[in-house]
Amino acid sequence: MLLRGYLTFYFQNGKELTLASAYTFETKRLSVQAWSPSSLPSIGTHEFREEFSPLLTPAVLKHLPKALQLSDSENAIEHWLEERVAESDLLTVRDSKGILIGLLILARLSEQESLATVHVGYLFSEAAWGRGYATELISGLINWYRDSRTSVQIIGGVEKGNAASARVLQKNGFERMKDYSDPETDMFSKRITDHS
């Protein structure tokens, strides 16, 4: 796996741990890199909308929280991406042909002082469903943290009706967090230590 980048975690006590600026990694079939306007067609262009529209369909967004649904505005895709970038690290996921097939969303949380906590979310275009990409993506993220010797707790929420996403996390060693789950959402967690 190719590993590049850095990232910064902020803890409640104000201390900062800098590891590098942007996540970048590759798996056998995927190339993942931090979203950057310079790496994409210009926002608002036909090419931009053409590349992102397969990722942000009602079927793809179905199991995501209401706040992550696409609005009906003319520039809905641009607004959706701007909102994600404002609240999290947004990474593009491309297949071996360089086609954008998914997004990885990583939101840093500061619930614990001793261990950085990152909330993970992802989505793939319908054409990419059922091919094992999600499992490969999460495995690649875990390997990125291990290879960079980063201690972190990764958490992910899965809507009860989305059994496929729950399986993706479980296949990658995530465990259900009973105390944090509710009737609508199961929460999963995986700890990675710099020596694991």
Structure report:
Mean pLDDT is 80; it is low at 1-21. 24% of the residues lie in helices and 30% in strands. It is α+β, with helices and mostly antiparallel strands and 196 residues long. The protein has a single domain (3-192), classed as Aminopeptidase. Strand 2 (8-10) and strand 3 (16-18) form a beta hairpin. The chain has helices spanning 46-52, 58-61, 76-87, 133-147, 163-171, and strands at residues 3-4, 8-10, 16-18, 24-26, 31-34, 89-94, 100-109, 116-124, 152-159, 175-176, 185-192.
Order of helices and strands: EEEEEHHHEEEHEHEE
Average pLDDT figure: 80
Q: Percent range for helical residues?
A: 10-25%
Main beta-sheet annotation = 9 strands, mixed
Strand order of the largest sheet: 1-4-5-6-7-8-9-11-10
Number of strands: 11
Count of folded domains: 1
Which structural class fits the helix and strand makeup?
alpha+beta
Counted by DSSP, the helix tally is 5
CATH class: Alpha Beta
Global Rg: 16 Å
CATH homologous superfamily classification: Gcn5-related N-acetyltransferase (GNAT)
